[in-house]
Amino acid sequence: MSRDILDFKGVIPAVLSVFDKDENLDEQGTREFIRHLLTYDIGGLYVTGSTGETWLMTAEERMRQVEITMEEVGDKVPVVVHVGAMSTREAIRLAKHAEQLGAAGVSSVPPFYFKYNPDQIFHYYKDVAEATSLPMIVYNIPLAGMMTVDQIIRLSEIENVKGVKYTGTALYEVMQIKEGCKPGFLVYGGCDELGSSNIALGVDGVIGSFYNVIPDLYGKIWAAVKSSDIAEATRLQRQAVHVIFAGIRSGSMMACMKVWLRAAGIPAGYSRRPFSNFTEEEERKLVDELVAIDKADEIGLDIVRRIQ
Length: 308
Ligand code: MN9
What we know:
Layout: E1 10-13, H1 27-37, E2 45-47, H2 59-73, E3 79-82, H3 88-100, E4 105-108, H4 118-130, E5 136-140, H5 149-156, E6 161-166, H6 171-180, E7 186-189, H7 195-200, E8 205-208, H8 215-226, H9 230-249, H10 253-263, H11 280-297, H12 302-307
Parallel strand pairs: 1-8, 2-3, 3-4, 4-5, 5-6, 6-7, 7-8
The site of 2-(acetylamino)-2-deoxy-D-mannose (MN9) has 13 residues, from loops.
């Protein structure tokens, strides 16, 4: 029971947004989906981020999504709201809204598209972080242009900047960040493919897309690493990678995860254009592929049990 960022630990889904077939935000579906996620041993929820297709949503829809999420979650687990926006002004509006609703923290990718210089990026984070009392989790992701370790260390000197979600693959940077930033600075692994390695490096949590689909498997990976059973962690991580690669190979990753969840009776909806959804035949193939992975790897995934 917490709204404290210090409890934002462990396996944390970057929540999928639930749209209906006509691309409307499906409020009832969202509620049911959040309730479903809360049945797992998760350390929190990260909403309206990349996996939530946030860049395809209006600010009003994002705020509505946060309202619904907070109503469903209450103080069961901490919720961090991604408030990244094209302008500082808009990010501040979203951050203030998240604060009013009781979020545990805010997060943001750096401003992108125009190639902002490091000072402009620094001031973006300072302005957004200082606009509320909430902790800010910086989000470093190649899609928005990776920031250097030095830049993250500089950002960590801003009082409200309390951590980073690092969706890179250069794991030595995770160590450099941990060593270079203030004590207690939170570091989250963002690349699901590297879950077990990130956990072994001592990250505070892992935040990502596939924890919407296979939170049970990642719970086991977390436990295996923490009990120093590296052989088991590696075996389980390999299985997770098979699922992730199937999702990526589909060509529309979020839509694919939603297909799998729907097949399991969980109302995760559809993706919004320009992402594509799948024909019924393609959907059947994707579901068959997930079931085949589960069988070949002898995983016993919860989602596959629900499909059958
Ligand atoms: O950081 C996610 N990145 C994106 C979070 O959504 C772009 C990851 O969870 C990846 O989706 C995942 C698959 O590549 O690692």
